[in-house]
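ugh ok so i messed up the first submission bc i forgot one of the chains. this is the corrected input, ALL of the components this time, i swear. 830 residues overall. if the numbers dont match what u have on ur side tell me asap before i send this to the collaborators (the ones from the other lab, u know who)
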Amino acid sequence: MAIRKIPGGVTAAKGFSASCCAAGIKYQGRKDMAMLCSSVPCTVAGTFTSNLVKAAPVIWDQEAVHSGSPAQAVVVNAGIANAATGKTGMDLCRATAEYTGQTLGIAPEAVLLGSTGVIGPQLPLEKLCTGISVMAGTLSDSLQAGTEASKAIMTTDTVHKEYAVSFELPPADGSVPVTVHLGGMSKGSGMIHPNMCTMLGYLTTDCAISPALLQKALSDVVPDTFNMISVDGDTSTNDTLLVLANGLAGNRPITAEDDSWLLFREALFSICRDLAVLMASDGEGATHLMEMRVCHADTKENARILARSVVSSSLVKAMVFGRDANCGRILCALGYAGPVFDPARLELFLTGEKDTLCFFRDGCVQDFDEEAAAAILAEKAVRFSCDLHMGDQEATAWGCDLTYDYVKINGDYRS
Amino acid sequence: MAIRKIPGGVTAAKGFSASCCAAGIKYQGRKDMAMLCSSVPCTVAGTFTSNLVKAAPVIWDQEAVHSGSPAQAVVVNAGIANAATGKTGMDLCRATAEYTGQTLGIAPEAVLLGSTGVIGPQLPLEKLCTGISVMAGTLSDSLQAGTEASKAIMTTDTVHKEYAVSFELPPADGSVPVTVHLGGMSKGSGMIHPNMCTMLGYLTTDCAISPALLQKALSDVVPDTFNMISVDGDTSTNDTLLVLANGLAGNRPITAEDDSWLLFREALFSICRDLAVLMASDGEGATHLMEMRVCHADTKENARILARSVVSSSLVKAMVFGRDANCGRILCALGYAGPVFDPARLELFLTGEKDTLCFFRDGCVQDFDEEAAAAILAEKAVRFSCDLHMGDQEATAWGCDLTYDYVKINGDYRS
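and heres the new structure output, hopefully the right one now
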């Protein structure tokens, strides 16, 4: 029942193809549109930004997912977010979906849309349509096509983000287990803060699963994966995470919360966590991934709130950049987070590849080896943890350091 | 009934004296301790950090204020916060107050304490006591002494912060109105975020006022002044705002919420707002003060939440630093703040010394003059506002831009 990491991303699962093109929407000299397509209609589930100001493609996708009708293609552009664009922006979504549907020979309602980039400007429909025609003609189910698509949707990202796994499930017919594939890509580097997934993410699987259980699995894993990362505390207007399941693996369809569903959910968790951590470590300007684990909390939600508070703190983020073990800042960020705990019982740790140091215990900052701490803080991934000694719940959050380059990227450039 | 700005700070009111000294607690070559003293016992009111991890002097002052007994002196040090110091830190507070009381000939319970600086280390009692002896011997009621005290409590502040006002109240005897004075000093530059005042602030007045009405006036003005500023989203462990009233002005004591109380509260609001705005504009690394006014909100609290969300947004702060009118980020920060509003009815403005530009209206980002916007964003104070068209409530929040120097200050230096 093991989950294995396999090469590829959105085209790792059977029946999914991808393509991309340079449509010249805002960026010049690079690819800026991507298309995903399944050879057969898919069950779809999604989670979306909690921001009250929702981009037009978010509203389009929400309606599509809530309608329960199948989806078959996704069209994404980078450069312009199609947010704060009013009725014109919604009309453009419809026109884009209609053109895509016509080009691929599917219903407009089976086309999902995603946009990322600057808020405000209207998207140029003609360029979109030209791009869609090109992409429809170059769809490929190669792993490379998935990788190229994951690059085309980048904005300030410095690395493309894709993962895929496989696992075995009972077959629809016969007795030999079938291999199910689940892969995905995501983008996101700034305007990243836990509240729905703060990015664009597209997952594909050939698993046969009912719409309700697909959505439940996704809703179960998001709070501990994409919602546990922060780059800058800003929850985007465009966050969208979609999972498309086309059923081509030939497994006995998952229609109950049985062992097969639990395994599928575990695989989904694994992809979502890996993509989320990759986004945190590729936060705008980041030089370090930061991890904060809260254990022995009274409730799961309190553990999450405390862990997120630490990775969201500007002072903790600047301290990680400066490699300065000014651990009082972590304590401070736990203290203002909201959940009640007893500072006198709290223990706070820094864990490196070789050592673990205790920063705080018995109500006092401890004497620790400053050189050892500086060595750990020089590692690429900086891992803090605390033990509240209250209950049996835990949570982990991921973020990155606050650097000159974050300020440069967001001060100098209309991203 | 006018409130007049007058020179000075904590020694502007009758009967208050101040002093400071270089005790060498952490900083070298500068003054790092301050003392305030009243010639007679004072009514006292205070508000304190909401952080669960409270510094020892915060706990000491809270108990003193809640006891209702009079206060007569305040001793403050910069460099070490006496936070996360456990029982040792509390014992040190008692020893410091006892030594001060003995030196000044007052009860230890009449001595209030304040500390600011790095979290974790213990304060050196001997150095504190040496400093207290020096300061007790050099107390002065000159305006200069108040100014020097406001400089001695600075940490990463670049300017000292003091204000004073006077106003007339009915006399205790006779018919000629008496002049009442109210002054204050504060410090704060980093670890500044609205939730109680996120700083140290000390206000003095010669007004005769009951403890309950002094506290009520303070509690009334803090939510719209000190709690409406943010530098970095981090609510400190040490935030303390105290007001001491010694009654020496000779006014008819304020014992009801009458016109005199309303005038006193207005004067208190004016001092608190001016000190708060000065702290925001002196935020660590700041090159701009940022103001966000939310009007026609449905409730006062929603107006506050929305205004604070904008001045706290890293992306808005970086945009102000970069002088880039990327107004979608403001809309985004309003959208994730929590309160419900209708984006289609929202209007968003940028107001400079000469012009006001509309950024957003009718659900769309507007075409605005980019050059005019860049010129306004080059002004020292950048003022945004929005109209929700919902009700009659409004609030204003203040913050600053996010700059390379913020990262430098907090990455390079154990502040």
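quick check: The domain at 289-412 of chain B is CATH 3.10.20.340 (Ubiquitin-like (UB roll)). that seems consistent at least. The longest strand of chain B covers residues 33-48.
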